[in-house]
Amino acid sequence: MIYTVTFNPSVDYIMKLDDFKEGELNRTSLTEKYPGGKGINVSRILKEIGAETTALGFTGGFTGDYIKSELEQRNIIHDFIEVSGDTRINVKLKTSQESEINADGPRISDDNFKALEEKLSSLKPEDHVIFAGSVPGGHKDAYKRLAAKLYENGIPFSIDSEEEKLTSTLPFNPYLVKPNLFELEQITGKSLKSSEDIRDAADALLESGAQNVLITLGGDGAMFVNAEYALKLTPPDGELVNSVGAGDSTVAGFISQHGKGITEQVKHAVAAGSATAYNSDLATSQDIISLLDKVKIEKI
After folding, report:
1. Of 147, 170, 193, which residue is a domain's last?
2. What global pTM score does this model have?
3. Which residues are catalytic?
4. Residue 15 sits in a domain of what CATH number?
């Protein structure tokens, strides 16, 4: 079973406008809402691909109820911990550009956190945990603490987060770390201008404990590096419609093919990420399948 952990889920409320005028009344041409949060997005794509997944994390209030209901309609197993306060609503404004307004999210108490620790302590070595996204204030070392416990119990985990949330888990040998280019620059404190710069930064993450490093590069695709491979991954052609969830889809594609070889893993990763980027919502299984043979893989 692949478990995703989303500390700060959201209801993603998408508003499309032909033009946005600040300080004036604006009317949308289309509105949509989806269960969101990086780990939840990963679970949604895993389900599309056919992998067994359970969504863990924290939900509260009417928005939390909406997320659980939507996941149930998609036949996605969830085992969320109820918190006081409402799960946040994140607004995505789509005009000629794409803007986001993300709320902070509800407080997670110490008891809430301990409840999550207990759930993870019951997992087995054949399971896999994916940590994804932000962590509300008060638990800045959450990923480090949970990663240490998983490592102690022999349970593999992967992480898609930013700066110290990601780097703090490296001593516990994450199976996959997936920063985007901006996050990798934050981690290194450097501007990464060339493929060589990116490769060097990925190698540093490997030396610090990561087993596999997958860096997403937006429209330029991705780079994959581990002890055996260094690969440039070029996505299929397509029109960018939606950047939300593309990185999460990439993670899901990679982990879904665990045990089937690196070629299948990176191919599914890029196909899933691209399929989401070319759709208004997260990709469907058919979207992903249609792009698999169009992913270009080159050794660096």
Report:
1. 170
2. 0.93
3. 248
4. 3.40.1190.20
